[in-house]
Amino acid sequence: MEVRPPGPKGRLLTGNLLDYTRDHLGFLTRCARRYGDVVGLRFVNVHVYLLNHPDHVEYVLVRNNRNFVKSRGERISLGFLGNGLLTSEGSFWRRQRRLAQPAFHRERIAAYGGVMVERAGRMVAGWRSGEVRDVHEDMGRLTLEIVARTLFGVPLRPAEFEEVGDALATISRRFTGRGGVFFQVPEKIPTPGNLRMRRAIRRLDALIYGIIRDRRASGEDAGDLLSMLLAVRDEETGEGMTDEQLRDEAMTVFLAGHETTANALSWTWRLLAEHPEVESRLFEELREVLADRSPAVEDLPQLRYTDMVVKESMRLYPPAWAFGREALADCEIGGYHVPAGTQLIMSQWVMHRDPRYYEEPGEFRPERWGDGSAEQLPKYAYFPFGGGPRLCIGQSFAKMETVLLLATIARKFRLHPAPGERVTPQPSITLRPKNGMRMVLERR
């Protein structure tokens, strides 16, 4: 007899779907704390297992990774990305990963540090002490500028920049509804939201294909990611990427490359404002390491506490708050039978706040990443960038960018929550602050 994992009973027709859609983060957390490491859920007629142990995450991502693909909901929701690294599977994904890897080599990524610091410096030069700004919006514009520069080598024209920003915002808003990223109406069904989504994708496609066409015609190596992707050749066949493959990777970088970092920084500003003792120690390190100059890539090894702040912020507010997989064949996880077709959810939000692995898990304590306790963590108790063969290819880029931008801005300004401002996490494709994040600027 097959043993199924415990879980909340749910409703007759919809199962646990309504409870999940009302409060994604709270529902998953309550289930994990009450029912344990493997929780059985049902969303209408879809059986879902919530996995809440580092060993189970490692089993799916590493030890038996070829038995799992993106969840059904993610395949539907993220179909607009085409066959990019985030969405493709099997041998095609392995080929694309092999082709794209040189573009994300550490030395290549390090060359973008100057662009990151320069754009952040330009932004804060326009800030004024005492003004109230939506910091989430500012971080989104900043990281979009950086990804456009590093992907395409040249700044987008103002009209293009606004068009890209509006289109990406439309796409992100599609996933802030009840279904989240795991349960969306298929894009081919002409709902108002899907129609807006299609228009946004057409606008991005026109821009991206135009840039690819111009770059192929010029043959120029602009030192950017697009130049690298155009130049790579498959070792076995000698073939490069088609325009469609380049478009899919560019679309993925556009979305993932600015949204995740913008959110990580936004939550970091909020946490620093709520913990002045951490903010003071951060500034002391910046003053000691940098004195009166801007940071550079070479400073990263010395910016240890700044790095700890980023790690702890991404523990409490992981930009990728959960992800899904589907079992291709029957297997067993945690002593429970997992039939082929079962949908699995693993949540960084839940795991990163598990009291079994973190002392005072709800507290913002960057020091935990420097006192040796983090070295005792099971490997997948902390996985903001995923793991296994599908570990985020842009991990080094994102880590470097977040630390450099935080250091550049924190040298110049202290940020305080705007009066009466209440910030609520909103799980979309990434973990966004609902209704933005208004903060008061104070020049140092």
Task: Please provide a written account of the structure.
The protein has a single domain, classed as Cytochrome P450 (Cytochrome p450, Orthogonal Bundle), CATH 1.10.630.10. About 45% of the residues are buried. It is about 50% helix and about 10% strand. The protein has helices at about 15-20, 25-35, 55-65, 70-75, 90-100, 105-110, 115-125, 135-150, 160-175, 190-220, 225-230, 245-275, 275-290, 305-315, 350, 395-410; strands at about 40-45, 45-50, 70, 130-135, 325, 330-335, 335-340, 345, 415, 425, 430-435, 440-444. Strand 1 and strand 2 (about 45-50) form a beta hairpin. The model has no long low-confidence stretch (mean pLDDT about 90). By secondary structure, it is an alpha+beta fold. A five-stranded mixed sheet has the order 1-2-8-5-3. A three-stranded antiparallel sheet has the order 4-12-9.
